[in-house]
Design a protein that fits this description.
Shape: elongated
CATH class of the largest domain: Alpha Beta
Bound molecules: 6-O-phosphono-beta-D-fructofuranose
Largest sheet: 7 strands, mixed
Number of strands: 11
Strand content: 15-25%
Protein backbone atom coordinates (compact mmCIF):
# COMPACT_ATOMS: atom_id res chain seq x y z
CA UNK A 1 0.00 0.00 0.00
CA UNK A 2 1.59 3.26 -1.11
CA UNK A 3 -0.87 5.89 0.02
CA UNK A 4 -3.53 6.08 2.72
CA UNK A 5 -6.16 8.70 3.48
CA UNK A 6 -7.29 9.80 6.93
CA UNK A 7 -10.39 11.74 7.94
CA UNK A 8 -12.55 12.65 10.93
CA UNK A 9 -16.33 12.67 10.72
CA UNK A 10 -19.43 13.15 12.87
CA UNK A 11 -19.27 14.88 16.25
CA UNK A 12 -15.69 15.84 17.09
CA UNK A 13 -14.08 14.38 20.19
CA UNK A 14 -10.99 15.39 22.20
CA UNK A 15 -8.16 13.10 21.13
CA UNK A 16 -9.03 13.05 17.44
CA UNK A 17 -5.91 15.11 16.75
CA UNK A 18 -3.77 12.68 18.73
CA UNK A 19 -5.22 9.91 16.57
CA UNK A 20 -4.51 11.77 13.31
CA UNK A 21 -0.95 12.34 14.52
CA UNK A 22 -0.49 8.63 15.24
CA UNK A 23 -1.90 7.68 11.82
CA UNK A 24 0.43 10.06 9.98
CA UNK A 25 3.54 9.22 11.97
CA UNK A 26 2.98 5.44 11.83
CA UNK A 27 2.36 5.59 8.08
CA UNK A 28 5.47 7.68 7.50
CA UNK A 29 7.46 5.26 9.68
CA UNK A 30 6.43 2.55 7.19
CA UNK A 31 7.17 4.89 4.26
CA UNK A 32 3.53 5.15 3.27
CA UNK A 33 2.25 8.48 1.94
CA UNK A 34 -0.63 10.18 3.72
CA UNK A 35 -3.47 12.24 2.32
CA UNK A 36 -5.54 14.25 4.80
CA UNK A 37 -9.20 14.39 3.79
CA UNK A 38 -10.82 17.61 5.00
CA UNK A 39 -14.33 17.90 6.48
CA UNK A 40 -15.10 14.18 6.52
CA UNK A 41 -17.27 12.77 3.74
CA UNK A 42 -18.14 16.29 2.56
CA UNK A 43 -14.49 17.00 1.70
CA UNK A 44 -13.98 13.52 0.29
CA UNK A 45 -16.74 14.17 -2.22
CA UNK A 46 -15.13 17.39 -3.33
CA UNK A 47 -11.58 16.07 -3.47
CA UNK A 48 -10.58 18.38 -0.64
CA UNK A 49 -7.28 16.68 0.14
CA UNK A 50 -3.98 17.79 1.66
CA UNK A 51 -0.64 15.96 1.68
CA UNK A 52 0.54 15.22 5.23
CA UNK A 53 3.93 14.38 6.64
CA UNK A 54 5.33 14.13 10.15
CA UNK A 55 5.61 17.88 10.56
CA UNK A 56 1.93 18.43 9.58
CA UNK A 57 0.99 16.87 12.90
CA UNK A 58 3.50 18.61 15.15
CA UNK A 59 2.12 20.22 18.25
CA UNK A 60 -1.43 18.86 17.95
CA UNK A 61 -1.50 16.00 20.46
CA UNK A 62 -2.75 18.37 23.17
CA UNK A 63 -5.40 20.11 21.07
CA UNK A 64 -9.15 19.44 21.12
CA UNK A 65 -11.27 19.54 17.96
CA UNK A 66 -9.79 18.13 14.76
CA UNK A 67 -7.28 19.78 12.42
CA UNK A 68 -8.95 17.90 9.54
CA UNK A 69 -12.33 19.37 10.54
CA UNK A 70 -15.58 17.45 10.64
CA UNK A 71 -18.94 17.71 8.91
CA UNK A 72 -22.16 15.85 8.35
CA UNK A 73 -22.83 15.04 4.68
CA UNK A 74 -26.23 14.17 3.21
CA UNK A 75 -24.86 13.64 -0.32
CA UNK A 76 -22.63 10.80 0.86
CA UNK A 77 -25.74 8.85 1.87
CA UNK A 78 -26.54 8.41 -1.84
CA UNK A 79 -24.83 5.92 -4.20
CA UNK A 80 -24.03 8.74 -6.61
CA UNK A 81 -22.36 10.72 -3.82
CA UNK A 82 -20.20 7.76 -2.84
CA UNK A 83 -19.27 7.12 -6.49
CA UNK A 84 -18.06 10.72 -6.77
CA UNK A 85 -16.02 10.36 -3.55
CA UNK A 86 -14.51 7.09 -4.82
CA UNK A 87 -13.51 8.77 -8.07
CA UNK A 88 -11.76 11.57 -6.16
CA UNK A 89 -9.93 9.09 -3.91
CA UNK A 90 -8.82 6.94 -6.85
CA UNK A 91 -7.50 9.89 -8.82
CA UNK A 92 -5.50 10.88 -5.72
CA UNK A 93 -4.04 7.34 -5.54
CA UNK A 94 -5.51 6.54 -2.12
CA UNK A 95 -5.67 2.79 -1.51
CA UNK A 96 -6.46 2.50 2.17
CA UNK A 97 -8.30 4.80 4.60
CA UNK A 98 -8.42 5.38 8.34
CA UNK A 99 -11.86 6.69 9.34
CA UNK A 100 -12.07 8.34 12.76
CA UNK A 101 -15.59 8.77 14.10
CA UNK A 102 -18.71 7.04 15.39
CA UNK A 103 -21.33 4.72 13.95
CA UNK A 104 -22.49 7.17 11.25
CA UNK A 105 -18.89 7.35 10.06
CA UNK A 106 -18.58 3.56 9.96
CA UNK A 107 -21.89 3.15 8.14
CA UNK A 108 -20.56 5.40 5.36
CA UNK A 109 -17.23 3.54 5.41
CA UNK A 110 -18.97 0.19 5.09
CA UNK A 111 -20.83 1.30 1.94
CA UNK A 112 -17.75 2.94 0.41
CA UNK A 113 -15.77 -0.25 0.96
CA UNK A 114 -18.51 -2.54 -0.39
CA UNK A 115 -19.29 -0.47 -3.48
CA UNK A 116 -15.79 0.65 -4.45
CA UNK A 117 -13.35 -1.84 -2.91
CA UNK A 118 -11.37 0.44 -0.60
CA UNK A 119 -9.69 -1.01 2.47
CA UNK A 120 -10.91 0.99 5.45
CA UNK A 121 -10.13 0.66 9.13
CA UNK A 122 -12.04 2.71 11.70
CA UNK A 123 -10.88 4.28 14.95
CA UNK A 124 -13.74 4.95 17.41
CA UNK A 125 -13.91 8.68 18.13
CA UNK A 126 -16.96 9.91 20.01
CA UNK A 127 -17.48 11.34 23.48
CA UNK A 128 -20.57 9.14 23.89
CA UNK A 129 -18.65 5.85 24.38
CA UNK A 130 -21.57 3.98 22.82
CA UNK A 131 -19.66 1.90 20.25
CA UNK A 132 -19.65 -1.85 20.38
CA UNK A 133 -16.17 -3.38 20.09
CA UNK A 134 -14.12 -1.27 22.46
CA UNK A 135 -14.13 -0.55 26.19
CA UNK A 136 -13.57 3.16 25.61
CA UNK A 137 -13.88 5.53 22.67
CA UNK A 138 -11.57 8.46 21.99
CA UNK A 139 -12.89 11.57 23.78
CA UNK A 140 -15.04 9.89 26.40
CA UNK A 141 -12.59 10.22 29.29
CA UNK A 142 -12.01 13.91 28.58
CA UNK A 143 -15.74 14.61 28.34
CA UNK A 144 -16.38 12.89 31.66
CA UNK A 145 -13.60 14.92 33.30
CA UNK A 146 -15.06 18.11 31.81
CA UNK A 147 -18.46 17.28 33.30
CA UNK A 148 -16.96 16.46 36.69
CA UNK A 149 -15.09 19.75 36.77
CA UNK A 150 -18.22 21.71 35.82
CA UNK A 151 -20.54 19.92 38.24
CA UNK A 152 -18.10 20.34 41.14
CA UNK A 153 -18.53 24.08 40.58
CA UNK A 154 -22.29 23.77 40.40
CA UNK A 155 -22.19 21.83 43.68
CA UNK A 156 -20.53 24.82 45.39
CA UNK A 157 -23.30 27.21 44.44
CA UNK A 158 -26.04 24.60 44.95
CA UNK A 159 -24.77 24.09 48.46
CA UNK A 160 -24.43 27.81 49.18
CA UNK A 161 -28.09 28.42 48.24
CA UNK A 162 -29.61 25.09 49.35
CA UNK A 163 -30.75 24.37 45.81
CA UNK A 164 -31.70 21.39 43.72
CA UNK A 165 -29.92 21.30 40.34
CA UNK A 166 -30.78 19.28 37.27
CA UNK A 167 -27.67 19.08 35.09
CA UNK A 168 -28.05 17.84 31.52
CA UNK A 169 -25.09 16.08 29.93
CA UNK A 170 -24.63 14.81 26.37
CA UNK A 171 -25.77 11.38 25.28
CA UNK A 172 -28.52 11.40 22.70
CA UNK A 173 -28.88 7.62 22.84
CA UNK A 174 -26.53 6.59 25.60
CA UNK A 175 -25.98 7.25 29.29
CA UNK A 176 -22.24 6.55 29.59
CA UNK A 177 -21.22 10.15 30.20
CA UNK A 178 -24.06 10.61 32.70
CA UNK A 179 -23.27 7.43 34.62
CA UNK A 180 -19.53 7.86 34.99
CA UNK A 181 -19.61 11.58 35.70
CA UNK A 182 -22.61 11.14 38.02
CA UNK A 183 -20.66 8.68 40.16
CA UNK A 184 -17.65 10.99 40.00
CA UNK A 185 -19.54 13.97 41.40
CA UNK A 186 -21.59 12.02 43.93
CA UNK A 187 -24.88 12.86 42.21
CA UNK A 188 -28.07 12.20 44.14
CA UNK A 189 -29.57 10.55 41.03
CA UNK A 190 -28.46 9.70 37.50
CA UNK A 191 -31.02 9.39 34.71
CA UNK A 192 -29.97 7.48 31.60
CA UNK A 193 -31.78 6.40 28.41
CA UNK A 194 -30.92 2.72 29.01
CA UNK A 195 -33.21 2.42 32.06
CA UNK A 196 -36.74 3.65 32.56
CA UNK A 197 -37.05 6.79 34.67
CA UNK A 198 -39.81 6.84 37.29
CA UNK A 199 -40.43 10.41 38.39
CA UNK A 200 -42.28 9.28 41.54
CA UNK A 201 -39.26 7.24 42.66
CA UNK A 202 -37.03 10.22 42.06
CA UNK A 203 -39.35 12.39 44.13
CA UNK A 204 -39.37 9.81 46.96
CA UNK A 205 -35.60 9.94 47.02
CA UNK A 206 -35.55 13.75 47.10
CA UNK A 207 -38.20 13.70 49.80
CA UNK A 208 -36.07 11.37 51.95
CA UNK A 209 -33.14 13.72 51.45
CA UNK A 210 -35.27 16.69 52.45
CA UNK A 211 -36.34 14.87 55.64
CA UNK A 212 -32.67 14.23 56.44
CA UNK A 213 -32.12 17.97 56.04
CA UNK A 214 -30.05 17.54 52.93
CA UNK A 215 -29.47 21.07 51.79
CA UNK A 216 -28.63 20.59 48.13
CA UNK A 217 -28.96 17.89 45.50
CA UNK A 218 -27.61 17.29 42.01
CA UNK A 219 -29.48 15.18 39.47
CA UNK A 220 -27.53 14.26 36.33
CA UNK A 221 -29.79 13.82 33.30
CA UNK A 222 -28.53 12.33 30.02
CA UNK A 223 -30.01 14.40 27.18
CA UNK A 224 -31.66 11.30 25.69
CA UNK A 225 -33.38 10.14 28.87
CA UNK A 226 -36.85 8.69 28.33
CA UNK A 227 -38.37 11.24 30.75
CA UNK A 228 -36.90 14.10 28.68
CA UNK A 229 -33.97 16.45 29.09
CA UNK A 230 -33.12 18.32 32.29
CA UNK A 231 -35.76 21.06 31.77
CA UNK A 232 -38.54 18.52 31.20
CA UNK A 233 -37.53 16.39 34.20
CA UNK A 234 -37.24 19.46 36.44
CA UNK A 235 -40.77 20.50 35.45
CA UNK A 236 -42.18 17.05 36.16
CA UNK A 237 -40.53 16.94 39.58
CA UNK A 238 -41.53 20.49 40.50
CA UNK A 239 -45.17 19.77 39.66
CA UNK A 240 -45.31 17.32 42.58
CA UNK A 241 -42.41 18.24 44.85
CA UNK A 242 -41.59 21.87 45.23
CA UNK A 243 -39.60 22.10 48.47
CA UNK A 244 -36.32 23.10 46.90
CA UNK A 245 -35.39 26.19 44.94
CA UNK A 246 -34.59 24.50 41.63
CA UNK A 247 -32.19 25.36 38.78
CA UNK A 248 -31.32 23.70 35.49
CA UNK A 249 -27.93 23.70 33.74
CA UNK A 250 -27.39 22.27 30.27
CA UNK A 251 -23.67 21.66 29.77
CA UNK A 252 -23.99 21.23 25.99
CA UNK A 253 -21.11 21.43 23.57
CA UNK A 254 -18.47 22.43 26.09
CA UNK A 255 -18.31 18.66 26.69
CA UNK A 256 -16.96 18.16 23.18
CA UNK A 257 -14.05 20.58 23.40
CA UNK A 258 -10.89 21.02 25.42
CA UNK A 259 -7.47 19.52 25.68
CA UNK A 260 -7.67 15.70 25.73
CA UNK A 261 -6.89 13.89 28.98
CA UNK A 262 -3.73 11.78 29.20
CA UNK A 263 -5.88 8.64 28.92
CA UNK A 264 -7.46 9.89 25.68
CA UNK A 265 -4.11 10.91 24.19
CA UNK A 266 -2.67 7.47 24.82
CA UNK A 267 -5.81 5.63 23.65
CA UNK A 268 -5.99 7.73 20.47
CA UNK A 269 -2.27 7.20 19.78
CA UNK A 270 -2.60 3.44 20.16
CA UNK A 271 -5.74 3.23 18.04
CA UNK A 272 -4.41 5.45 15.24
CA UNK A 273 -1.19 3.47 15.03
CA UNK A 274 -2.95 0.09 15.16
CA UNK A 275 -5.35 1.19 12.43
CA UNK A 276 -2.45 1.89 10.05
CA UNK A 277 -0.66 -1.34 10.94
CA UNK A 278 -3.92 -3.21 10.32
CA UNK A 279 -4.29 -1.66 6.85
CA UNK A 280 -0.71 -2.58 5.99
CA UNK A 281 -1.33 -6.13 7.20
CA UNK A 282 -4.27 -6.41 4.79
CA UNK A 283 -7.13 -5.97 7.25
CA UNK A 284 -10.17 -4.07 6.06
CA UNK A 285 -13.63 -2.90 6.98
CA UNK A 286 -13.14 -3.28 10.69
CA UNK A 287 -13.02 -0.99 13.68
CA UNK A 288 -10.01 -1.11 15.95
CA UNK A 289 -10.86 -1.30 19.64
CA UNK A 290 -9.19 -2.00 22.94
CA UNK A 291 -10.93 -4.49 25.21
CA UNK A 292 -9.32 -5.50 28.50
CA UNK A 293 -6.11 -3.80 27.33
CA UNK A 294 -5.94 -5.97 24.19
CA UNK A 295 -6.18 -4.59 20.66
CA UNK A 296 -9.23 -6.04 18.90
CA UNK A 297 -10.96 -5.68 15.53
CA UNK A 298 -14.73 -5.67 15.02
CA UNK A 299 -16.28 -5.72 11.52
CA UNK A 300 -18.10 -2.43 10.74
CA UNK A 301 -21.28 -4.44 10.28
CA UNK A 302 -21.14 -5.59 13.93
CA UNK A 303 -19.90 -2.29 15.35
CA UNK A 304 -22.86 -0.51 13.74
CA UNK A 305 -25.48 -3.13 14.58
CA UNK A 306 -24.73 -3.59 18.26
CA UNK A 307 -24.47 -1.06 21.02
CA UNK A 308 -22.17 -1.08 23.96
CA UNK A 309 -24.20 -2.14 27.00
CA UNK A 310 -24.27 0.15 30.00
CA UNK A 311 -22.50 -1.28 33.03
CA UNK A 312 -25.22 -2.56 35.38
CA UNK A 313 -22.76 -2.82 38.28
CA UNK A 314 -21.95 0.87 37.98
CA UNK A 315 -25.68 1.69 37.86
CA UNK A 316 -26.17 -0.33 41.07
CA UNK A 317 -23.17 1.34 42.67
CA UNK A 318 -24.58 4.77 41.87
CA UNK A 319 -27.85 3.79 43.51
CA UNK A 320 -26.20 2.47 46.69
CA UNK A 321 -23.86 5.42 47.09
CA UNK A 322 -26.59 8.01 46.62
CA UNK A 323 -28.97 6.66 49.25
O1 LIG B 1 -20.92 13.44 19.61
C1 LIG B 1 -22.15 12.87 19.98
C2 LIG B 1 -23.00 13.92 20.56
O2 LIG B 1 -22.19 14.47 21.52
C3 LIG B 1 -24.33 13.52 21.17
O3 LIG B 1 -24.30 13.10 22.50
C4 LIG B 1 -25.14 14.79 20.97
O4 LIG B 1 -26.49 14.60 21.01
C5 LIG B 1 -24.67 15.23 19.63
O5 LIG B 1 -23.32 14.86 19.58
C6 LIG B 1 -24.89 16.64 19.27
O6 LIG B 1 -24.10 16.95 18.17
P1 LIG B 1 -24.34 18.08 17.09
O7 LIG B 1 -24.76 19.30 17.80
O8 LIG B 1 -23.02 18.19 16.43
O9 LIG B 1 -25.39 17.56 16.18
Amino acid sequence: MKKIGVFTSGGDAPGMNACIRAVVRTARFHEVEVCGILRGYAGMLQGDFIPMDSSSVSNIIQRGGTILKSARCEAFKTKAGRAKAAEELKSEGVEGIVAIGGDGTFTGAKFLAQEHGFSIVGAPGTIDNDLYGTDYTIGYDTAVNTVVEAVDKIRDTADAHDRLFFVEVMGRDAGFIALRSGIGVGAEAILVPETETYIDQLIDKLQRGWERQKSSSIIIVAEGDDAGGAYAVAEKVKAKFDYYDTRVTVLGHLQRGGSPSAADRVLASQMGSEAVKALLAGRKNEMVGIINRKVTFTPFEQAIKHHQKINQELLNLAEVLSL
